[in-house]
Amino acid sequence: MRKNYTKTYHIIFDAFGVNAKLLNSEEFGLCLLLDIPKLVGMRILSGPNLVRDYEKGHEGITGFAIIDFSHISLHTFVKTKEIFVDVFSCKPFDYAKVRSYLYKSLNVKPYQVETLEVKYPWE
Questions:
Q1: Which pLDDT band holds residue 17 (cuts at 50, 70, 90)?
Q2: Residues 78-84: what's their mean pLDDT?
Q3: Helices assigned H by DSSP within the chain
Q4: Which of 37, 42, 46, 119 could cross-link 66 (Cys pair, CB 3.0–4.6 Å)?
Q5: Which residue pairs, CB below 8 angstroms and at least 24 apart, start in 78-83?
Q6: Whose CA is closest to 32, among 110, 121, 106, 118?
Q7: Contact of 15 with 81, CB cutoff 8 Å
């Protein structure tokens, strides 16, 4: 018997070798969290919230926004020049738009990025 699952849409975008100044900028993190919901046609219900981590070797920013169908999160690591972005939703959205926006905003090339687009077998 097949369970009645809610369809979900999920993209994980991990980039390496990103400009450390961008990753250390609260303004930049805030822009990402404000722009992505607009890009995918969703509203922010709570946030965005940003927290700066000052711990030696782990400096960076963590951000989160609750959107009307789920969430968007980001984690930056200045020392290692990494950013991890997650967009999860119960409403379909265009993964290509999110990828394109992040490539451009982060000024990264495909060899600097790992993405995972979760597609469930029941779709």
A1: very high
A2: 96
A3: 20-23, 26-39, 95-106
A4: 46
A5: 78/20, 78/23, 78/24, 79/20, 80/16, 81/16, 81/17, 81/18, 81/19, 81/20, 81/23, 82/14, 82/15, 82/16, 82/18, 82/23, 83/14, 83/15, 83/18, 83/23
A6: 106
A7: no
Task: Inform me whether the pLDDT recorded for 3 exceeds 60.
Answer: no
Task: Choose between 82 and 55: higher pLDDT.
Answer: 82
In the predicted structure, residue 33 carries a pLDDT above the cut 70: yes
Measured over the CA atoms of residue 101, residue 111, residue 79 and residue 64, the dihedral's sign is positive
Q: Hey, how many other C-beta atoms are within 10 angstroms of the C-beta on 36? A: 24
Q: Could you give the count of Cα atoms lying within 13 Å of 32 in the half-sphere of its Cβ?
A: 33
Work out the number of other CB atoms within 10 angstroms of the CB of residue 69.
19
* Residue 106 phi, psi dihedral angles, 5° rounding: -90, -10
Architecture of the CATH domain 25-118: 4-Layer Sandwich (3.60)
Stretch 72-81: mean pLDDT? 96
Quick one: tokens of 32?
Answer: 């990402």
